[in-house]
Input
Amino acid sequence: MKQKIVIIPDVHGRPFWREVLTNKEDIIVFLGDYSDPYEYEGFTHKDAVRELTDIVQFKKDNPERVILLLGNHDVPYIHPNFPTYRYSNELKNEYRKLFTDEPDLFQIAYNLRLNDIDYLFTHAGVNKEWFEMMSPNLINTNLDISVELNRAWKETPEIFATVGRARGGNKTPSPIWADYEEHDAFYGYPDSIQIFGHTQQLKNPILVGSMWCLDCRKVFVLEEDTISYYTEFGDKMELSFGKDI
Output
């Protein structure tokens, strides 16, 4: 049977992810940012807490199939010293409980090899310069990078708090903060295709070179070397889809 990877970009309180609830066969990767909805979309923090509650239960019901990554809007509810945006003081305890009661439900990165291609999943993509700067915190960068990133998150979470200029900071952005513009699509690091969200698009994903940004409020499926919308008979998309921002 061909392996399918279902990918769910930034949720932010939206219910679009629920179409995968009946999926029984595939690996399902959430790219983070369950928290802090956009008010102009009509979703509230209470909506986001409800959706996150059900996502956490979905993970508990499918511990081997469901991967929950963390995003920049999630980690401030775990570590209050992280930069915030649209943060909810009113519901911070509810968010924090969901993220910390069973912290091993969440991780920073996920890596897999599919048909001789390595795919690295994070919330915002691993910036090559950041990785090289932080390599002293990563014990063995020749091994599975997701293992090293997840270990670093547990042991030195502060290295993930760096924000780049594209988001109003002045440092090299971490894998939860890097904007798409802060990546080199054809000179990425490590040597894999990176799949992430974070940089919201108006309609379509950005699929250029080795950097694939899927943050456009749709569910995707990766099968063999093709990525498509998550519909039973979805049209296949070109692997060099270009920009739509």
